[in-house]
Amino acid sequence: MNQGQNEISPVRVRFAPSPTGHLHIGGLRTAIFNWLFARHYNGLFLIRLEDTDRERSKQEYVDSILEALEWVNITADEPIIKQSDCFSEYSRLTQQLLNTGKAYRCFCLQEEIEARQKEKGLDPLFVGYDGFCRGRQVTATDLEKPNVIRFKIPYDIDEVIFDDLVRGSISFSREQLDDFIIARSDGTPTYNFAVVVDDAAMSISHVIRGEDHISNTPKQILLYQAFGSAIPEFAHVPLILGPSGQRLSKREAPTGVLEYRHNGYLPDALVNYLVRLGWSHGDQEIFTRQELISYFTLDHVGKKSAIFDQEKLDWINGVYMRNTDNQVLLDTILVSIKSDFLDQLKKWGKEKILILIDLYKQRTKTLRELVDELLRFYKIPHQYDQDAIKKWIIPESIKYLKFLIERLECQDDFSVEGFSSVIHAVCNELSIKLVKLAQPIRIALTGSSASPGIFELLSVIGKEESIARLKTFVAFLEKSAVN
Ligand code: GLU
Question: Domains in the chain, ordered, with CATH?
Fold first, then answer.
């Protein structure tokens, strides 16, 4: 398929979540693959809500799924389809299959089916329906009894083969398929039936979904054939596994997409990370959205399951934070992390907060971490990291700091350069290396020996607060020395 700018593309793909829970990051990756595929081939990306399970589907989940997709900037190119709006179409088409002898009513109770299987020495867990009602003449009295509608697997085929765009040729023999249910006793359609009806109605060209749906595909292909509809191409992508090698679960990492927003990840960073889980473009790790669109094809989607790697996600998020404008980061914090962030840092004002965001984004991996660090830095520390004290404080430190305080008290340039020149001058006068004074200053300012540059921090908090922090630390050291 060629990538053409102006041609009408035959590509129409869809993401079809079931609103029975929040959007899982595995689901998001499927959505992203579909969206990129559509964009790459100038096609259309559609969304269909598979809400036929009336008991488990909830509006709350519809809302949160769509909110999560919007957060990562993935939206549908046509109005969103809801399966619950299509029930009459499903029954019309079920009836059509009944009328043409391609489906039949089944009155068997589950216990009856199992009893027959056991009698034949078969384990009901591993065998499907035995076709008991397949040839049954349905009477009017029968119709008063609860019944389901089953699809008649054609007996004139030996197997169903399809060419999966990720996994190559896949085949199922007829023995692996039983006459599966297409409508439940309450008339609602089953997943396999509704999917085929809708994918055909929506003219879906490529079905890109998780590999947990591979075993559904032969049933769906047979339904397309029964309707005489065009069969889409299929691409089944490997699942995302947790570090334990099992399907990623809440125990191993947050799985809800919106949890990542809450935890301070940037949407483009999460998208970049998820695309790379299962797809590659040489060794490149960081991609703009435009690059993803131009490079993404199914050719480089791997067959092997990808393992979720929190460290890598954090690294990618850090890269995106550093590349994001400070004002954008601040706006994101206010919208997604802490709406009263500015109020909580009132004495600094917006200008200083933007400078601090710039300093702290160099060393934090999530916006939440950045927010926590800034809230911590806002307060004068009264506790200090003991390891830092052991490593950097010597008996003379108190003398050095007091000398510095004296100099700062009569200094009037509180720019980064102003602080830098006083501190360098003090080190010269005391004949000590900068680190002997810089690290104690850092501990005094932040409570620890890891922070952005001290000249910048001093300049942001200003003369009075800098001196107050230094004095508090000196008092602490003097008290510790006495004890
Ligand atoms: N509703 C199905 C799911 O959430 C969609 C499967 C498909 O894409 O066909 O897994």
Answer: 1-80+238-320 (3.40.50.620), 87-183 (3.90.800.10), 324-379 (no CATH), 380-483 (1.10.10.350)
| Protein residue whose Cα sits closest to atom 3 of ligand 1 | 17
Q: Which residues pair with 150 in a beta bridge?
A: 104, 181
Give the bridge partners for 14, in sequence order: 46
Q: Which atom of ligand 1 is nearest to the CA of 17?
A: 4
Q: Pick out the chain residues at pLDDT < 50.
A: 1-6
pLDDT value of position 483: 62
Mutate to test the pocket of ligand 1, among 191, 204, 216, 239 (most ligand atoms within 8 A of CB): 191
Q: Is 250 a known active-site residue?
A: yes
The pLDDT assigned to 2 comes to 43
What's the pLDDT tens digit per position in 61-99?
999 999 999 999 999 999 999 999 999 999 999 999 999
Q: Please, are residues 192 and 153 in contact by the beta-carbon 8 Å criterion?
A: no
Kindly report the protein residue whose alpha carbon is nearest to atom 10 of ligand 1: 17
Task: Name beta bridge partners: 161.
Answer: 171
Give CA angle at 172 (47, 219), nearest 5°: 40
Distance 209 CA to ligand 1 centre (A): 7
**pLDDT tens profile 124-138:** 788 889 999 999 999
Pairing of strands 81-82, 44-49: parallel
Q: Does the global pTM surpass 0.90?
A: yes
Cα(339)–Cα(344) distance, integer angstroms: 10
| Residue count (the chain) | 483
**Catalytic residue (one of 250, 346, 391, 399):** 250
Ligand 1 centroid distance, CA of 14 (Å): 10
Question: Taking Cα atoms as reference points, which of 151, 146, 145, 157 lies closest to residue 131?
Answer: 151
